[in-house]
Design a protein that fits this description.
single chain, 8-stranded mixed β-sheet, globular, two-stranded antiparallel sheet, alpha/beta, 12 strands, TIM Barrel
Length: 295
């Protein structure tokens, strides 16, 4: 294990420097999102890569509203009682994808535990409508755990996304504090069920580090993901969105991230995107392409 970098102040280490979001594409995409009344997790979750991704003409669309029925200790998305579903949302997203000529699209959502299928039918409608409007576009979905409703999961799988992502987020010991309404075993079972329903479908998951986990716990969680045949993995540093969120235990060094990536490759992941600023959708198209290039 590489040397650790303890958190001694609120200042970020030097390897966290990112450019202030700006640029022609950034402004254009922001404007199009507003005019089409669409949400992105890039904005809602205060992603540090928003400038880079928007300027490359990519974005991760967040469906089912902007209010989550859960309140996880790490997440900046609003929580509370969501409003009604917007039946026109799939059409607006498909229109946006076509307007931007996106070759790769990521769709995610808030948790909607208030809905009978957790929003699975809307995910499926988005995938189908994007394929109709922009046949050359590939769609990745980042989905919640659907409260373990595998019929709802089948609805999404049957719509044939290119990649199905469900984030494990953290190690099992920290679930009660980090994801109090989630269940570690249920998240693993979801990924296993994806492969049962569609063995050739690319399964993906993600981990945050810096919440108090040990190196051994991280490796054990990665091994659990490989046991359910997870293909792709993202590993990034947890950054505290506000003082009301969980504190950062420590910052991992770039070498530690590189070491985790190497370990993941040895475990058999097709691709591991590991770095301080890595988030679930960061370089998503490149991750998926490497998956296809190695099979």
């Amino acid at each position: 294990m590489a040397e650790t970098q303890p958190l001694s102040s609120k200042r970020l280490p030097p390897w966290f420097k990112v450019r202030f979001p700006a640029g022609e594409n950034y402004s254009r995409i922001k404007g199009l999102l507003r005019s089409h009344k669409l949400n992105t997790v890039c904005e809602e979750a205060r992603c540090p890569n928003i400038g880079e991704c928007f300027n490359h003409g990519t974005a991760t669309f967040m469906i089912l509203g902007d209010t989550c029925t859960r309140s996880c200790g790490f997440c900046a998305v609003n929580s509370g009682r969501p409003g009604p579903l917007d039946e026109a949302e799939p059409e607006r997203i498909a229109t946006m994808v076509k307007a931007l000529r996106l070759s790769y699209v990521v769709i995610t959502s808030v948790n909607r535990d208030d809905l009978p299928d957790g929003g699975a039918s809307v995910f499926a409608a988005c995938i189908r409508r994007i394929r109709e409007a922009s046949p050359e576009s590939r769609v990745e979905v980042l989905i919640p755990d659907l409260l373990g409703d595998w019929d709802a999961l089948a609805t999404i799988v049957e719509a044939r996304p290119a990649v199905l992502n469900h984030n494990i987020e953290t190690v099992p010991r920290l679930y009660l504090r980090v994801r109090p309404k989630a269940v570690y075993a249920r998240s693993l079972e979801l990924l296993a069920e994806v492969k049962r329903l569609a063995p050739a479908m690319t399964a993906k998951s993600g981990l945050m580090v810096g919440l108090g986990e040990t190196w051994e716990e991280l490796l054990a969680t990665m091994e659990d993901l490989r046991r359910v045949d997870c293909d792709l993995l993202t590993i990034g540093q947890y950054l505290r969105p506000s003082p009301k969120h969980l504190p950062i235990d420590r910052f991992y060094t770039p070498k530690e991230f590189a070491d985790l990536g190497e370990v993941g490759h040895r475990m058999g992941f097709r691709h591991v995107e590991s770095g301080p600023l890595v988030r679930s959708s960061y370089h998503a198209s490149q991750q998926a392409q490497e998956r296809y290039d190695t099979i």
